[in-house]
Amino acid sequence: MLLISCLILPLQGLSVRCLNRLVALDELRTLLARHARPDQQTAIDGVLISKVDRPYPPSPSMSGTVLALIAQGAKRIALGDRVYEYRAGQYLIASVDLPITGHFTEAAPERPALGFGLTLRPATVAELLLQAAPGDLPPVGGGAPPGMAVSTAPDELVDAVVRLLRLLDRPRDLTVLAPLLKREILWRVITGEQGAAVRQLGLADSNLSHVARAVRWIRDHYTRSFRVEDVAQLAGMSGSAFYRNFQAVTAMSPIQFQKQIRLQQARLLLATHPNDVTGVGQRVGYDSPSQFSREYRRQFGVPPSQDAARLRDPTLDPAAAGTVSYATV
């Protein structure tokens, strides 16, 4: 599709730029394919590479706070009632660690899905914001932005990612140059279309940071019942402002968010304790086995006992082996 659009553009410099982008994306695919590992890790701290050769069924995971750039293939992510799709040349920003369901929709052995990921760290964002000159950045808006967003990657961002990945072939340069290039990538994102969400990530008193604090508390105490007013106070917001901003960021209410965390943790536990469905439900905070079974089935399509059998013996469902956890990248 990108090649066709390049060829039909008028010869006014735009087609040259488009072809340069094609070349950059092609090199990006080559680098990602060469350095992909099963655990997604690389020699560069905070940099992940994803390579998937078939479209696994949708599976739950936590998003992490990450920039994810697709070089080949396409991916769909569901967050609450929102659905995000991105493909080659597009990037996704997750500015809060959120419970998601995602899968690559375009992937094949002869043309695997390839993605680049960079962990977004609030301290690094804050440092860049402090170094920016007055007027370099637009003011942060009042409300909390969505915790996830998709945009087309500008050429400067793709170029910076390619130059960073080239360092994997030059280990001697990694220590000195990798931090500089990661900062350049982050700066491109901060000043780009989705920069507001990332800038708020680095501001301790932003609405996004307040919501992120509540998200961490719920994630760390997901087995406990809580009053929304108490979590709002912990986040440093009024009850009404907290509820409004929490839904804006996560696409869920705080109680729905807790339920997502509980069910994801239950599924991970069932992978290692498949014969203790009742005990797993209790461990994640369910007092009623029937409620646990009902909500689990609504979330994953099968009751926990049947899902446990699939997780224990993937030959019953070949896709089950790939559905316990899934990276955003």
Automatic annotation (TrEMBL):
Alphabetical keyword list: DNA-binding, Transcription, Transcription regulation
SMART domains according to UniProt: HTH_ARAC
UniProt-listed Pfam families: AraC_N (PF06719), HTH_18 (PF12833)
SUPFAM superfamilies xref list: Homeodomain-like
InterPro entries noted in UniProt: Homeodomain-like_sf, HTH_AraC, HTH_AraC-typ_CS, Tscrpt_reg_HTH_AraC_N
Keyword RNA-binding: no
Gene3D superfamilies attached to this UniProt entry: Homeodomain-like (1.10.10.60)
Transcription regulation recorded as keyword: yes
Boundaries of every HTH araC/xylS-type domain copy: 212-310
Name of this protein: AraC family transcriptional regulator
Organism of derivation: Plantactinospora endophytica
